[in-house]
Amino acid sequence: MSGVPRVVSTMLTVSTALTGLTGLRLAIASLSMMAAMVALAPPALAAKDAGEMTMESLLQAVVKVHARVPAEARTARGLGTEREGSGVIIAKDGLIVTIGYLILEAAEIEIVDHRGRTRPAEFVGYDHDSGFGLIRMGDAGGAEPLEFGDSAKLAERQPVMVASFAGAKDAIPAVVVSRREFAGYWEYLLDKAIFTSPPHYNWGGAALIGADGRLLGIGSLIVGDAVKGEQVPGNMFVPIDLLKPIMADLLTKGRAAKRPKPWLGMHTEEIKGRVFVTRVTAAGPAEKAGIEPGDIVIGIGDAGVSSMADLYRKVWALGKAGVDVPLKILHGTDVQERVVHSADRYQFLRLRPSY
Question: What is the CATH number of domain 1-258?
């Protein structure tokens, strides 16, 4: 089993390092259990109808994703023009799921497979609500696609494995330390994100794999508060269950067939119940309405705003993209009202193909 001794060693090291952390003591038992599982019975991982998979063959489905983005792309300033991370092969025709920010507005996408071959891939679809992106190369390249697991059943203290494109040498054991709401500064909200610890430092597009060898999530971020209210480093994963109901739409239309949410083009940060504007997108709705970095959003119409998640939900409840959003802001020492004419984020981005 290539890489298994390193995985077990990492588990033991992590177990020792985390013993003193509040809220994780019971999770350490799960780490030990995962170590025993991998060390004693790796061929049993991901046993499927077609036969059993070894650890090595399991990780062949995790590939490197490299995207080149034009300098004039809307996301070039924040995400860069050269992006690299991981993706997971999920179908024999070479369909790959990754985290969407890696491929947003990409002019060229390449895959490096488990054999080290660089292969072209095409953009298939993107869903902002979940954060998933789909791309496709010509075939699976000899790798066995990973099957979807049931991320809804993934609970705190359960052992998992986090794997990037670097294969077994970079695969680490982890524990689910939290299942909770996550609000991202880019107008993004997950009701029940997956948080794991210890952190994997190649998190973008990384595979979250369960003990049965099935895919449970895709890596999005590294965070400092994987355990709510505690300074515990870890990763945030997007649950794979969010992809299942929109898969057909992404394959045929490039985006989910649902009402587009109103987008403001406004980055925010939450500090002690206050929602601060940290950046506005150039030529975006918030900038056009005169919103500036440093403003504090204190309400929508007559309703107060208590958090980023609260802000997003109240904006989205107003209607579909294009609806006017009456923001009440604190600008310096003045309370001001600004009406933001919201937009459809998909129309603003320069996606290929365009929608």
Answer: 2.40.10.120
